Amino acid sequence: MKTYVVGSGVTKVDRHYDKNYLVLIDEAVGKTLANSGLDASDIEYLVVSTAFSESILNQADPSTYIAQNLGFRNVKALTVSSGEVSGAVALDYAHALIRSGKASRVLVVGFEKMSEYPSWVINRVYAKILEYEVEGIKNVAPSDYAALIMNDYMRRYGVSRESIIKWSIKMHENAVKTPHAQLQFTISADSLSKALRISEPLTMLDSHPTSDGAAALLLVNESVAKKAGTTPIELVDVESSVNLPIYLRDDLTYFSATAAAYKRLSSRNGVKLTTNTAVNVYDTYDIYGLLTIEALEICARGEAVKCVDEMPYLNVGGGLKARGHPVGATPLYQVHELRELMSGTSWIKYDGDISLAHAMSGPDNNAWLILLRGWV
Amino acid sequence: MKHSISIFWRLKDNHYKIYVTKCGDCGRVAPLKRLKCPYCGSRNVEHIESRGFGELINYTVSYYRTEGSEQYLPRVVGLVKLDEGPVIIGEITDVDLNELSIGTRVEAVLRKYSSEDPNGLIYYGLKFIPVIKK
Amino acid sequence: MTSSRFRVGIVGWGAYIPVYRIKAKEIARQWGFDDRVTDSIWIEEKAVAGADEDTVTMGWYAARSALLRAGVNPGDIGAVFVGTESKPYAVKPSSTIIADALGISAKKLSTDLEFACRAGSEGIRISVSLVESGAVRYGLAIGSDTAQANPGDVLELTASSGAAAYLVGPADESVAVFESLVTYVTDTPDFWRRDGSRYPAHGEGFTGEPAYFHHIVSAVKMLMNESGLKPSDFDYAVFHQPNGKFPLQVGRMLGFPREKVLPGIVTPWIGNTYNASALLGLAKILENSKPGQRILVAPFGSGAGADAISVLVTDKVLERVGKAPTVEELIARKKYISYAEYAKFRNLIHRNLW
Ligand SMILES: [Zn+2]
Prior knowledge:
The structure holds three protein chains of three kinds. Chain A is α/β, with parallel strands linked by helices. Helices cover 36% and strands 19% of the residues of chain A. The termini of chain C are far apart. Chain C folds into two domains: 192 residues, Peroxisomal Thiolase, Chain A, domain 1; 138 residues, Peroxisomal Thiolase, Chain A, domain 1 (3-Layer(aba) Sandwich). In chain C, 34% of the residues lie in helices and 25% in strands. At the A-B interface, helix 5, helix 6, helix 7 and strand 5 of A face strand 4, strand 5 and strand 6 of B.
């Protein structure tokens, strides 16, 4: 049984000081169900994705309270929490429900509220994506690893610091054209020398911002999809792999989990990514985006900065860098942006058959890929 | 940051000391006392205590601010290749930001990871400094 | 109480001095002293523990060096004592943290000792007795302090951070053997810190004649009487050194020529490390001594008491000096910091905590 996305909706990614998670989710769900021909009472499963609701909102299993507050009366509700890949895991679960025939209408909702505390508190929360007993206790920060990886990449391939920022410049350009993106302004390489350093040589210009947001996707089986009032997109396959911790890797500049997941996904589905394929990848830090498109075999190793200019459909929503990173929702934003692209409602026209979303926790610690195909 | 008393106590061997897990099957080494070899999954491992000396192979100056960290910032975080073979992540302390370079010899020293709560525990653990005895 | 002649000795020793220094004149100017005050007591600069250092971490380093020099199995150490007046925990021993981090077995005596600046040497005396009695094979005595001083108090010119450690064990494994040990203790309120108070108080001039000088002179004379030794029998004399001037003065009072006292003086360049003060002086002497030389060491602690200890250097000292950083290497290793950085490191700045 095949899985189709027949609706998707997102809120603007922002610091939503005036809205709680329920208000954000209500907005995203409303947009998702509009035109789908379905309403909340038709939903069989409510699969909720969040990385940090327990830490930030003091809320375990928010799915229960989303169902109670937003009118889901006959739903099976659950929460998926798997660090920065929570949203991808939620989609995999929904996909499995539909593929197995256990459900035909699954609503996947992702959210995060990262702006509820000042940065020094949220930084501590975000650092929980690393291994607490090894890295967290020593106060190792996620951005520290990005800096170490950037150092190695520059040394190994002779890539300059200024050329890496090309990624972020492109992300901001895409974000300006994306209404739901958080950072709606362009940046230039000149700003690099003045940018606040996070973990040298990494600066704010290389990093995702602090984001709130909610996104929803409606996943259904083929018979429901055929009746939908929108153009369905097929969720073809999900694949993933886990890497060793950074300090055990022989080569920091190779995202081998992403690469392994891609090899399996590629051979199983007979697809190959090129610079003209729409991909929406995790650029938690710009260097991660570059390593990801190398691991996905779109670019040769050490060549990613050259490829960036040749990839018209790379992170059309602005990436984590500029669309923002409402962590539990981010993979759903990615799929939403790809759906818009493939259904012709994005700011850029796309003729490709397939597209790919990539999510990962930390520096390729846990990498997930979601393959989408247009309605045929 | 407050840590669980029992967690920190249980982790003494991995923070007061540096152990190396050596695999009896694939022969590879990894830092920390581990149940299994992280490379091949074998339980046939032995734990050897590192002397705590090594070489800095990569580092960053971190301004990442978390509550209670201000007294220690900016901090240098780096990868140290221990003389026994494995690479470990750790903080390099007591250093001027311009005195480090790749290849600097370092030694492990007991320091405070954090201790900001005047009524709470002091979390001791190993960091690195450039070797005193050249 | 005297003498454990040739049965017990120092098997290993270790020193630690934090890398940071602040110029004494900068402190003097900060608080409106005539900056000539630093010359009047002979203090050039003092060592400052970093933000992530304390008595435990410094004591650990010194003790590890002592073990490296001794080359003994940590499992054979039966006693660990930390002498300090800057315990990181008011209640909870520092010695257990250091012992666990060094892999010393659980089968041991272990406690923190408090007697102002001479608790570390009391640890040595207790260790000597334990080894001599056969209760333990080795005893580890550590003196370590991040000395507190009320900002603006003249004490702040000298109160510094550092540690020294001595592994006491059988004479035949030792770099120096104990010939004679005596202690002279009275109730003399020259310096104190009340429970819960952040900084110590003192009697200024009263810390000198009735306290420092009276107790050290009495202890050393007691040792001379009991052992029959004279100042001319010693190659070096090391005294507690709250500043650079006092040890020279007490040496003069006891008839030691200046050249026998000067080599053991470290305070002008690192400040008064309290429980490590005389013990760092002794470490420096050991690192430069020749087999057969005799050293007098006389620590003092307010409240008040002094020890006088005579050791004879053996030929084992030569091979062990190079196994860990020497006091001179630690003194030479330094980075200057401002008063503001010093205040930050030593927690002198009041902040709200999240
Ligand atoms: Zn193995």
